[in-house]
Amino acid sequence: MSYPYQIKNAEEYKAAYKKSTEDPEGFWGEVASHFQWRKPWDKVLDWNFSEPKIEWFKGAKLNITENCIDRHLATMGDKPAIIWEPNNPEERTRVVTYNRLHKRVCQFAQVLTNLGVKKGDRVCIYMGMVPELAYAVLGCARVGAIHSVIFGGFSAQSIADRLYDANAEYIVTCDGAYRGNKDIPLKSVIDDALIGNRTVKKVIVYTRTRTPVSMLKGRDVWWEDEMEHAEQQVEKDGKVSFPATEMDAEDPLFILYTSGSTGKPKGVVHSCAGYMVYTAYTFVNVFQYQKEDIHFCTADIGWITGHSYILYGPLSAGATSVMFEGIPTWPDAGRFWDIIDKYKVNILYTAPTAIRSLMGFGLGHVHGHKLDSLKVLGTVGEPINQEAWHWYHENIGKGKCPIVDTWWQTETGGILISNMAGVTPDKPTYATLPLPGVDPILVDENGKIIEGNNVSGNLCIRHPWPSVIRTTYGDHERCRLNYFSAYPNLYFTGDGASRDENGNYRITGRVDDVLNVSGHRIGTAEVENAINMHAGVVESAVVGYPHDIKGQGVYAYVIYDHVHGDENLTRQDILQTVTRVIGPIAKPDKIQFVKGLPKTRSGKIMRRILRKIAEGDTGNLGDTTTLLDPGVVEEIRSGKL
Ligand code: PRX
User: Fold this and answer.
1) Whose CA is nearest to atom 13 of ligand 1?
2) Is 395 in the pocket of ligand 1 (CB under 6 A)?
3) How far apart are alpha carbons 368 and 374 in whole angstroms?
4) pLDDT per residue as tens digits for the range 572-614
């Protein structure tokens, strides 16, 4: 069964695209009419990119959880909303039907209310991939609290910074999380993050690993106790209800922190209505979801992909979404394929890094799996190389499943450029065509639009789509400067791209100082700040280099005033500092000690040179005559790791 807004063939795509550009308000108004509103909008869109001020479905009232849950109950209350696969394959699977999801979300919304959470309050969520994480996210949305989910790979210091930035008063966490053969002590990390914190009033702790945890009287409460109490409040005569808070279309739904080219992560803010409509629309169209399909997105809910394509998009389309607690290589590198056969997964959405890593384990782990339920494959987060694309297509998709290469960002909320499975053609390494409502253009350094085909430039978007970033939390000017000021009246993505003879886009990577490591964004300035905090470090410069599995690796050049112990120990010490300051995900892959960095006379580090050396391309370093001390280049080149 399909959806009223589902595009079924290339002709319909062309027609939808044409309508979306000629009459965006008519187009999106029609799509939005298939959702549940407490009050309809007065105007579909009001916008300017100069402030920026972008308002979709202005004046409408809704609650996203009524769209994701309540409206499905009458017709498919017993349908699985979430199928949860535990880290340990021996442990029991949990199937959360829409009825059950409704009950748990109502209960958790009641818990939040009991603890004093109100509309607009910020709730930080730091949990492993358990169904309770979904209840926490949706419970916040139900009471109108703004959730800020933080990925489990971030350190206490990163959490503390995010708590401070969002002025968060509530935290939901777990005692610990299972990932492969590791237990990660989440509550203990939260405790470290809360040293000296004066704003957090309550910490709700869900028991997953039963790791011993410290529970501070008056501040820390157990999830299970609170939920039990709330159950009696929300369930009367066998009927469950918790009235959802009425939200304005443009009320913030969540904050998600992401790295930019400055040292401080930005709190990207998405609002309720536009995000809801766009994630559901793109979910249904890109993956060509049919109402009986099982969708498996392998991302963590700590990233935007998990927000949009495990939770909000699939749930507002009434889909069944698989949520996996573990990692692709444990107990062995056949885990994804086990899960696909176990649940008869139809759509697999994963990252090129995961594909490359699994390729490395050989086909032995794929053999013995049927994988015949698969209809659509997807990739996200980074460019996919030819080899990985073909491996995925032939060995996983058995040559019959289209691969959707979906390009988008935390800031875009949903997929902007991608083929649609079986509707528009795929082309290896190309994200291909813009989705309806998306108007991409390429510009040169001076902002001049590059027309025609077989060209490349900086990728910008000309017109707002419903889930475009609204602001950066607490600092609207930062949002303007980062995304809307480089080129007037355009949203600047920070990516470079090329366009082929048929108008297909190929994303070539970031053009700013942001790295993409295993599909995760890492700001070089952030890593440099962390390294510079290490005692003995005088200065550092971080660049990316091509990495076979991660796409990009982190290469750090470090000036050190004296080495404590030997160089290798010092490297380990520095890694420890980066782990403390940002988290294990930002650890450099290589650290080269240098005596100086190539700087211009005005003191600017010439990263171009450092990048070339890190890439191993040391033949022609370009013009080095403007350097203050050209001699350092030779020294760095000869010491390359
Ligand atoms: O450089 C692009 C790359 O990932 C960046 C966005 O990262 P993040 O906000 O963490 O979101 C990742 C998940 C949506 C982009 O600026 N990127 C994302 N998807 C692709 C991609 N690069 C190439 N191809 C893609 N399909």
Assistant:
1) 381
2) no
3) 15
4) 999 999 999 999 999 999 999 999 999 988 888 999 999 999 9
Strands 403-406, 551-560: pairing is: unpaired
pTM of the shown model: 0.97
Q: Does pLDDT of 641 surpass 80?
A: no
Give the ligand 1 atom nearest the CA of 379: 26
Pocket of ligand 1 contains residue 380 by CB under 6 Å: yes
Q: Which residues pair with 521 in a beta bridge?
A: 516
Using the predicted structure, report yes or no on whether residue 563 has a pLDDT greater than 90.
no
Average pLDDT of the residues of the chain: 96
- CATH no. for residue 615? 3.30.300.30
What is the distance between the alpha carbons of residues 547 and 313, in angstroms, rounded to a whole number? Answer: 32
**Best mutation site among 270, 283, 356, 382 for ligand 1 pocket (most ligand atoms within 8 Å of CB):** 382
Q: Which amino acid is at 320?
A: T
Eight-class DSSP state of 20: H
In short, whether 431's Cβ falls inside 6 Å of ligand 1 is yes
Residue 587 is part of which domain span? 518-638
What average pLDDT does the segment 627-640 reach?
86
Cα gap 474→141, rounded to integer Å: 20
* 567 backbone φψ class: left, alpha, beta (φ>0; ψ -120 to 50): alpha
Q: What residue's CA is closest to ligand 1, atom 24?
A: 383
Task: Please say which residue of 190, 222, 245 terminates a domain.
Answer: 245
Looking at 214, 245, 276, the residue that finishes a domain is: 245
Give me the pLDDT at residue 624, please: 76
Give domain status of residue 395, yes or no.
no
Q: What are phi and psi of 639, to 5 degrees?
A: -95, 10
